[in-house]
Amino acid sequence: MTYPALATIILMPPVVLGLATVLTWVERRLLGLWQDRYGPNRVGPGGMFQAVADGTKILFKQDWIPPFADRAVFVLAPVIGMMTVLLSFAVIPVTMGVGIAGDMNVGLLFILGMMGLGVYAVVLAGWASNSKYALLGGMRAAAQMVSYEAFMGLSLLGVVMMAGSFNLHDIVAAQAGLWFIIPQCLGFGVFMLAGIAQTHRLPFDLPEGENELGAGFHTEYSGMKFGMFFIAEYAGIVLVSSLVTTLYLGGWRGPFLPPAVWFALKTGGMVVFFILLRAALPRPRYDRLMALGWKVLLPLSLFNVMATGTILMLRASL
Amino acid sequence: MHALALLAACVTVVGAIMVITRRVAVHAVLYLVVTLLALATVLVMLGASFAAMLEVIIYAGAIMVLFVFVIMMLNLGQPDSAREKEWLHPRAWLGPGVLATIACAELLYCLNPLSGPAPAPAPITAHDVGLGLFGRYVLMVELVSYLLLAGLISAFHIGRNRVGGR
């Protein structure tokens, strides 16, 4: 094992966790800006250290496990959530050299697999809490995330067909002439929607819809276990944003600036877009969400696969 | 590499035993997930990383979630655990145990593990899998698609929302 790879392994989790923590403050400030109010602005310059204050506070809170819960699974659920997100980052190619297993020949499938396992965090949290709101949240999460996982995989097929590889480095390399967002605009749209549903972010945060389910699947969680769900959600946003950057926005490619800066800029832009969605859109009804998935997104992504395949075949035969 | 594969294989076996002996259904499903993940590790060691990832995505990530979903709907409780305990009576182990021992012995005899580690085969890529599926095994793929279609239609028939409650 080479030293850069080792350094990446050691540095990646703290960097991702730090980013996710800072993101909680960024989100609240941006929401404040868009909703014409201040947001947290007291701790440090511009409220920058709000995340540190929140983290310190949540660490000192009582870590309570309800007596009626299934202890082992209750503790395991947030760990699964955190682990699957962090493991997914292993194959994200930040630049040509950086990224632990960026050259993994099934990199994209690895991320899909980890996202699939991430569903357990929410579902098991709902089940182990042994309370009604949490159970309902967990059941919603299971149906929503498994459904949208299917469209997510299908929408990525177009990219894989155009690049001819599951390797994320090859996919970035294949976007040398044209970013995939232009030929794969349909797949991009489906992937974005599926990504929001997969990270259960507003407007698709039905598993924790607080107007009807208390706090949904994490109703019974307190202290740092709740904090882990929270941070894992923000790390999930960074993950989906960096995936969009890699798959559709040309990854680290760009003129003048160094590759890592381009990657950070594109990913940051996508993260801000995620936050803007939260500020701008209301939550749909649950049955509408499922209907949108199966009746609109599934045919669209199948059509995308068919059209991409046809065009590639025609181009190859010419 | 060989030791890692053996370790993963051991995890698979232990996980499978735990699946059978757990009394709480969700715990059994979780052990099944562990078993599937360990199996995927073995597949990676054998060079079939594409198949391993499909195993993680489809079995561990989707089908098992549906299992948990159904268990959540059923809301199993204390009486069910007691009944499970009854079913796991020592006498119930005899028949399956004998059959499993015979199968295991035969497998060990055929594989002859004492011959040392086999040379690592060439990695099987998605390209190879695609060529195999739509070349040599295309008939099987078509037959399976018919089977899935039949399943889909029956699920639709059962789950259809009948107007008027007939």
Biggest sheet overview of chain B:
none
| Multimer state | heterodimer
Spatial separation of the terminal alpha carbons of chain A: 45 Å
What is the count of distinct domains of chain B? 2
Can you tell me the residue ranges of chain A where pLDDT is under 50 for at least 5 consecutive residues? Answer: none
Beta-strand proportion of chain A: under 5%
Terminal residue distance of chain B: 61 Å
Q: What percentage of the residues of chain B does DSSP assign to strands (E)?
A: under 5%
How is this structure best described in words?
The complex is a heterodimer of chains A (318) and B (166). Chain A is mostly helical and 318 residues long. Chain A has one domain. Chain A is built from eleven helices and no strands. The mean pLDDT of chain A is 86. In chain B, helix 1 packs antiparallel against helix 2 and helix 2 (25-45) packs antiparallel against helix 3. Chain B is mainly alpha-helical. Chain B has two domains: 2-90, Up-down Bundle (Four Helix Bundle (Hemerythrin (Met), subunit A)); 125-159. Classes of the chains: A mainly alpha (318), B mainly alpha (166). Chains A and B meet through helix 3, helix 4 and helix 5 of A and helix 2 and helix 3 of B.
